[in-house]
Amino acid sequence: MSGIAIMTSGGDAAGMNPAIKAAVDHARQLGMNPYVVYDGLEGLIDGKIKEATRELTNDMIYRGGTLLRSSRSKRFFDYEFRKQAYEHLKKRNIDKLIIMGGDGSFRALNDFFNDFEVPFAGIPATIDNDIAGTDYCLGVDTAQNVILDCIDSVRDTARSHHRAFVIETMGRDCGYLAMTTALCSAADICIVPEIPYDLESIYKRLQPVINEEGSCIIAVVAEGTRVAQYLTRWLTERAGMDTRLTVLGHVQRGGSPTARDRLMGTRFATRAVEALNNGDINQIMVYHDGQYGYASLDSVAGQQYSVNQDIINLCRELSC
Amino acid sequence: MSGIAIMTSGGDAAGMNPAIKAAVDHARQLGMNPYVVYDGLEGLIDGKIKEATRELTNDMIYRGGTLLRSSRSKRFFDYEFRKQAYEHLKKRNIDKLIIMGGDGSFRALNDFFNDFEVPFAGIPATIDNDIAGTDYCLGVDTAQNVILDCIDSVRDTARSHHRAFVIETMGRDCGYLAMTTALCSAADICIVPEIPYDLESIYKRLQPVINEEGSCIIAVVAEGTRVAQYLTRWLTERAGMDTRLTVLGHVQRGGSPTARDRLMGTRFATRAVEALNNGDINQIMVYHDGQYGYASLDSVAGQQYSVNQDIINLCRELSC
Amino acid sequence: MSGIAIMTSGGDAAGMNPAIKAAVDHARQLGMNPYVVYDGLEGLIDGKIKEATRELTNDMIYRGGTLLRSSRSKRFFDYEFRKQAYEHLKKRNIDKLIIMGGDGSFRALNDFFNDFEVPFAGIPATIDNDIAGTDYCLGVDTAQNVILDCIDSVRDTARSHHRAFVIETMGRDCGYLAMTTALCSAADICIVPEIPYDLESIYKRLQPVINEEGSCIIAVVAEGTRVAQYLTRWLTERAGMDTRLTVLGHVQRGGSPTARDRLMGTRFATRAVEALNNGDINQIMVYHDGQYGYASLDSVAGQQYSVNQDIINLCRELSC
Amino acid sequence: MSGIAIMTSGGDAAGMNPAIKAAVDHARQLGMNPYVVYDGLEGLIDGKIKEATRELTNDMIYRGGTLLRSSRSKRFFDYEFRKQAYEHLKKRNIDKLIIMGGDGSFRALNDFFNDFEVPFAGIPATIDNDIAGTDYCLGVDTAQNVILDCIDSVRDTARSHHRAFVIETMGRDCGYLAMTTALCSAADICIVPEIPYDLESIYKRLQPVINEEGSCIIAVVAEGTRVAQYLTRWLTERAGMDTRLTVLGHVQRGGSPTARDRLMGTRFATRAVEALNNGDINQIMVYHDGQYGYASLDSVAGQQYSVNQDIINLCRELSC
Question: Which InterPro entries match (chains A, B, C, D) (predicted)?
Answer without folding.
Answer: ATP_PFK, ATP_PFK_prok-type, Phosphofructokinase_CS, Phosphofructokinase_dom, PKF_sf
